[in-house]
Each structure stands twice: as structure tokens, then as C-alpha cells.
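Example 3.2
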Amino acid sequence: MNPSILLAAVFAASALVTQAEPLGRFSDDPSKLRVMQWNILHGGRDDGKEEGPKRVVDVIRAAKPDIVSMQETYGSGEFISKDLGFQFHPRGTNVSIHSRYPVIEDISVYKEFCCSGALLELPDKSKLAFYAVWLGYNKSISDPGSRDGLDESQLLAACKASGTDIAGILSGIAERLKDPKYKDVPVMICGDFNSMSHLDYTAEHKDQFGVVIRWPTSVAITEAGFTDSYREVTPRVDRRKDRTWSPRFPEQLPDRIDYIYYKGSRWKAVSSVVEESHPVKFPSDHAALITDFQLR
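Structure, written as C-alpha cells:
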């Protein structure tokens, strides 16, 4: 079922339900997996220390993911996971993983602020290496007019830190998972990359973006064998519809900077949507990204 339909149904029911209920799986079929990527903005607290995180829970509960990659967790993660009945796997203050499935090993790499990794055991006892990441940036180029007069090298320089971070993370993951016991274990890397994608900024879509750029961050991860799940199932580029930045600042330049990448032959992305709905107010400046996977 489309996550947006689930959101509408849950929000409609929420007016009648005052006590939180355990989060049920979106599907009882173990051959299906739903993953959410979401930067929740300052722990979700910009709209209230208590009310904001509750709205974060509302959005997650409505989407019914099995695993959540989160950024800007900032003290709200334990409450969110507890309310959902999930396992909470943080690293530092920023990135965290929330999973309905057991975390059987910490496989974190690189900087504490940028990467949290967990080896998860799924219902069929298979394993999944799951990473939540946040990548740095050098300069914001989302404000109206902020790209005027900048050439390609200057645009790339604004996202240089993102490329540095993904290189370190990919290298770290390769080293961490080189043991033969991880052979054939699928890997997912989800996060706020603070960089656009070369799959969007193509010659075919220059009318939407005004420039053709092979953004090094997305090039690096796809050349490492990972698939951009959203672009895989949504090949038609629509800058406004696709964008994860920014539902809170609609006047800013829309871009896709949040991703769910995956690698391995076990899972296949079958649908992916961007979500920014809440009946009162969406609590973040990033839209949530939700991808459904099916066993091959």
C-alpha cells in the first residue's frame, strides 16, 4: 500500500485514539521490508519540546516502516523508539537507527557524528547491514539567488565535504564488512547527504536545474555498487515532486538530498515516496523518504 494512503488513514483515526498503540508492520509478509530515511530537525523540537517529538512519532507511526534512519536525533531518539516499540541504536547525538528487528552487532564506521551502523536480524533470520549517515557541506546553496553567478567548480565546492565524508564511510564499510561471515549480506546506506544527485542533474533535465553536474557524492556511492532506490523506481525526474528539501522552507530551491541506497542481490526496491504530511504541522525541514523492498 502506498505510504501516503496509510498516513491519511492513521491521521484520521488519531483523533479517536488518545493512547499510543504498538506500531504494527505495514505487511505480515516477511518478504517485504519498508525503510524510512528522515532528518527530524533539532530532535523534532522546534514546534515544542514535547509536542514536536510526538509529531515525529505520528509521522513514523502512520508510515509503518520496519527500519528508520534518522539524523538530528538530538535527545529525542529514546522517546521516539520507546513510543514505537522499536530498538534504538544511536551513535553520538546526531545519527541513529530505529528498528523493529534485533540489532545483533554494532558495525559503525567513520566519525561518530556522521555514521551509525547496525547488523540487523530479519524475521527469516537473514542479516542486513544498515547504516544511517549524515554528510557535511561547505556552503548552503539553497536560498533563492544563492547559485547566481556560480560556475560548476564553485557549486561543487559547496558540497565538497559531502564527498569527503562518503569516501570515508564507504572505505570504512568495506573494511568493516570484509570478513567472510558478511559475504552476501545486503547493505543499505540511508541518510541526509547534503548533496544533490548526478542522476537528476543531467542534460535531459537541464531545463529544471539550469546546469548539468556530476555531483561527486552520488557518483562515488553508485560507482561503489549501490542503487539509489528512489530514482530506480521513479526514473522520471520532477524537481518539485522529488525534492526532500524543504517542506518547511518552500521558497528555497527544491532538491533531492536525502537517499536510501542499497547493495546486494537479496532485496529489490519496488516503490519509493516522499512524505511531508501531518494534520497539524510537519515537524521537520526535511521530507521523509520511504522505500518498500521485496525479496527477489
